[in-house]
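Look over what follows to help learners.
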Amino acid sequence: MRLFFGLMILLAGLEGNTQTVRKMKATELEAYIRNSDHPLVMSFWATWCAPCVQEIPWLQQAVKKHADKKVEMVLVSLDLPKDYPATVTSFIKQKKLEATHIWLDETNADYFCPKIDSAWSGGIPATLFINNQTGYRKFFERQITDRQAEPEVRALMGH
């Protein structure tokens, strides 16, 4: 009996460490953003984008400092359809990227970029800081630096 419960606890722990990557269309992502009742830091990235991968830990660290404020880190992968789910999931596990993971199931940047921000030309990294409760919204179509991440998350929180 103890062995059974030990295995159940082990399996539950393994389940908690798995990173699922949810597939979304642009309209679903729009609704996710619009309906959020807490602040979001949304990083649009790809496994092959070195500046994207470099900035993610800085954003994660800044978000973790505000965990008590329920700031959600959302990593939106723009990897190609051939890379979803295997390459994206493997990369997330290898790099231990803790966040809500979404793969954007779209290939037409002219369609999906304006749904996120009207000024977005499609370049990555791109980051959206949004807090629907306060009306705060700021979009960057470039890499966030290690020194910018924390002040941007503080601004998102209204500090």
